[in-house]
Amino acid sequence: MEHKGFLTRGHNELEYCLGLNSLKLGLCFNQNSGLAATIHTLLTELVHAIDETTYFEIKIGERYYYFDVVLSNQPLKVVPDEDHFIDLPDNSAVAQVYQGLPGGLPYAKDLESVTRGLNCFAVPFRSDRDIIGCVALSGPSNRFTAAKMEQAYATYCEIMKKLKLENNL
């Protein structure tokens, strides 16, 4: 499986993680399952309600993959690079979701701890109990405050309830 690109070795050469071909296989499944459309609808509705850039990120090995991104209409916004992969520090909101949310909180936040002037919010997107991805919003710290993150979480919950009813997730 390693030779075919479905598995790759981790940093210590003793552990394996999913390889790029596993991602490609999963993306094909997502396109046929309607999950990709559901995720895009979720991101679009969050941007419409909160007006901050919204991402769906998947952890692959030690890196994160932008599965989908919807940009805000704000004149000052976070725009990801052309590369769909990103390395994030452990204190980023997205990394916190994958490490286990601190104190049993429903979402993680990064208040300028990774980049000065930038705040991020991340919430796990689950299928049953498994995290399949992470929904993240980011924006300038003067606009995307902790209070706006509370609003973002409440909006996320409302949208998810509606999407679960419509799509039987």
**Helicity level:** 25-40%
* H and E order: EEHHEEEHEEEH
What would you call the structural class?
Answer: alpha+beta
How is the biggest beta sheet arranged?
A: 6 strands, antiparallel
User: What is the tally of beta strands?
Assistant: 8
Quick description:
The protein is an alpha+beta fold. The chain contains four helices and eight strands, in the order ββααβββαβββα. 35% of the residues lie in helices and 29% in strands.
SSE layout:
Blueprint lengths: L6 E3 L6 E3 L1 H14 L1 H16 L2 E8 L2 E8 L14 E2 L6 H7 L8 E4 L6 E10 L2 E11 L5 H22 L2
Antiparallel strand pairs: 1-2, 3-4, 3-8, 4-5, 6-7, 7-8
Helix pairs in contact: 2-4
If you had to describe this structure to a student in words, what would you say it looks like?
With 169 residues, the chain is an alpha+beta fold. The chain is built from 4 helices and 8 strands. It has helices spanning 20-33, 35-50, 93-99, 146-167; strands spanning 7-9, 16-18, 53-60, 63-70, 85-86, 108-111, 118-127, 130-140. It has a 6-stranded antiparallel beta sheet, with helices on both faces. It has a two-stranded antiparallel sheet with strand order 1-2. Helix 2 runs antiparallel to helix 4. The longest helix has 22 residues, at 146-167. It is globular, with a radius of gyration of 16 Å. It starts with 6 loop residues before the first strand and ends with a helix. The mean pLDDT is 81.
Comma- or semicolon-separated keywords:
alpha+beta, 6-stranded antiparallel β-sheet, 35% helix
